[in-house]
Amino acid sequence: MASDELFAAYGGKLNGGHPAIDAATYQTDAGTIYLQQPGAVMLAKPNVNLDAMRPFLEGFDAALQFPAYLDDPTPLPEGAALVKAAAQLCYASFGPGRTANANAARYFDNIRSSGHGSVLEHAVYSFLCYGVSRSLTHELIRHRAGFGFSQISQRYVSGKVLRFVERPEYVEQPDLHARFLTRIDRAAAEYAAVAERLLELQAAGDTILTAEARTDLRKKVQQCARSVLPNETEAPLVVTANARAWRHFIEMRANPHAEIEIRMLASRIFLCLRETEPVLFADYTVQSHPDGTHSVYSEYRKV
Ligand SMILES: Cc1cc2nc3c(=O)[nH]c(=O)nc-3n(C[C@H](O)[C@H](O)[C@H](O)COP(=O)(O)OP(=O)(O)OC[C@H]3O[C@@H](n4cnc5c(N)ncnc54)[C@H](O)[C@@H]3O)c2cc1C
């Protein structure tokens, strides 16, 4: 399946050039909110002004014609433009003999096939990831090189923002789906009951629950009450990574051997990145599986 077709099939949209695949919310009869798939929303991408290189390029021997670099008639997506300029700086490839943007596909293929992936680190993309369970994010945050994470704090926020994520295996199974609904209602109620009891103890002066600042009082209750929450509690986060790190993440996690929930997220992140940067992610193909899930493949791993 072509990646743009899958992006559309997942309900992908371009919000002013920033792709997003959103996820619907549902409610149990008791009002507990849950989601059935991850949402991946690109919040930020490179904003490049290559023209700022002009004084630098004009400072070389005029015979080299370096400023002509800025008059390339073929526009590139911003991340690709940034990475290509950074890579071409390495060899001062700004003159007429350089690879022009029209041949960017071949240029990036050389970078990938030769494993010179460090130049991809200049292009950075941020995503809001939601509809993701604590199980998923435990795996996601194992990725370190080139990543930054900011995740909802179960110590800081109250039960009012509790939401849950249903496993894809349960969605089409009426008995497992019903058990999920019952379980999350119970988890939300148990959290509320434990928090209420802890607040009572705190108000009565319980030593271990006391604190100087008001926010610390709430934290002391919530850090304790969260222990009753299951792995299927939603744990939204903002993830920022450079293109090289995202590529490694996609290769590991949009892989058929990856856990299904993180594979759903990784596939969506890939589709958003591919929409934004078709050249940087040109080598990936989407594979469809009999169970209706998808994975992403490239022969160039870990560039
Ligand atoms: C299918 C699957 C099953 C897994 N099962 C388990 C499991 O059972 N138990 C478990 O604990 N984990 C498991 N993991 C997690 C896995 O071991 C990694 O921690 C995770 O995938 C992050 O990948 P990474 O180490 O490549 O890190 P990244 O941070 O994404 O790093 C990218 C690359 O940078 C280099 N790098 C990063 N940090 C260092 C460093 N400190 N020193 C040297 N080089 C570095 C490495 O080459 C690394 O591959 C599993 C992952 C997958 C995909």
Report on this structure:
The protein is of the alpha+beta class. The protein has two domains: 3-45 and 124-193 and 229-297, Alpha-Beta Plaits, CATH 3.30.70.3180; 50-122, no CATH class. The protein contains ten helices and eleven strands. It has helices spanning 3-9, 54-58, 78-90, 104-114, 134-140, 168-171, 174-203, 214-225, 243-253, 260-276; strands at 13-15, 18-21, 25-27, 33-35, 39-44, 124-130, 147-151, 163-165, 237-242, 285-288, 294-297. A six-stranded antiparallel beta sheet has the order 1-2-5-6-9-7. A hairpin with a 2-residue loop joins strand 1 (13-15) and strand 2. Helix 7 packs across helix 8 (214-225) and helix 9 packs antiparallel against helix 10 (260-276). The structure holds flavin-adenine dinucleotide. Flavin-adenine dinucleotide (FAD) binds next to helix 9.
List the helices and strands and how they pair.
Layout: H1 3-9, E1 13-15, E2 18-21, E3 25-27, E4 33-35, E5 39-44, H2 54-58, H3 78-90, H4 104-114, E6 124-130, H5 134-140, E7 147-151, E8 163-165, H6 168-171, H7 174-203, H8 214-225, E9 237-242, H9 243-253, H10 260-276, E10 285-288, E11 294-297
Parallel strand pairs: 4-8
Antiparallel strand pairs: 1-2, 2-5, 3-4, 5-6, 6-9, 7-9, 10-11
Helix pairs in contact: 1-10, 7-8, 9-10
The structure holds flavin-adenine dinucleotide.
Flavin-adenine dinucleotide is lined by residues 142-145, 248, 252, 257-258.
